[in-house]
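Reply to dn_fold:

You asked what the input looked like. This is it:
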Amino acid sequence: MVEAKIAPSMLSSDFANLASEAEQMVSFGADWLHMDIMVQILLGILCSHFVPNLTIGAPVIESLRKHTRAYLDCHLMVTNPLDYVDQLGKAGASGFTFHVEVSKDNWQELVTRIKSKGMRPGVALKPGTPVEEVYPLVEGENSVEMVLVMTVEPGFGGQKFMPDMMDKVRKLREKYPKLDIEVDGGLGPSTIDVAAAAGANCIVAGSSVFGAPEPAQVISLLRTSVNKANKSG
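and this is what came back:
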């Protein structure tokens, strides 16, 4: 069995009240706080980016860390994740998940650096990336500890869940029974059962939690679905 971890996405929170929103999510039963880090670098007329939006960075992580002991699950949607390891480690990030699409040549160095800064390494893959590309990063001594399967295109909140991504989750769960498998994008009461049945145990949920009349009930429902799937599996 793998432990259920429910991670409200702080991208859907009120940024003007980030500390209180974080505290509230933890009081509602959240295990992790999911932090989407998207950066756009402008150098003259040259623009180097992985996604088009700019959101949370190391200064925000550092500020939030002063107000919470929660696990800060950082998802890096950046072109050069190696450039952010030191600053996020210093800021107090708990997990550092990078994208396989931009780290095929230096992932071993990246994982080593992440672990040296006291963070837990994870790897993410976009909907169009074959799941087989993350296998080498999960196997061996210097491996990641989590795989994040994106169930929407990264970069924007509120997108529709892609059920065909569950085939990736099933393959990962069959191959790595004890691996933390995270899903992110469109997760909520109407989609959690199919994700949990496929083998996902780390659930990122944004608008379905923050937009709910009773967020604690949604968090509880997500956890119950994962635990039920664990028992039946």
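The two ends are 8 Å apart (CA to CA).
Hope that clears it up.
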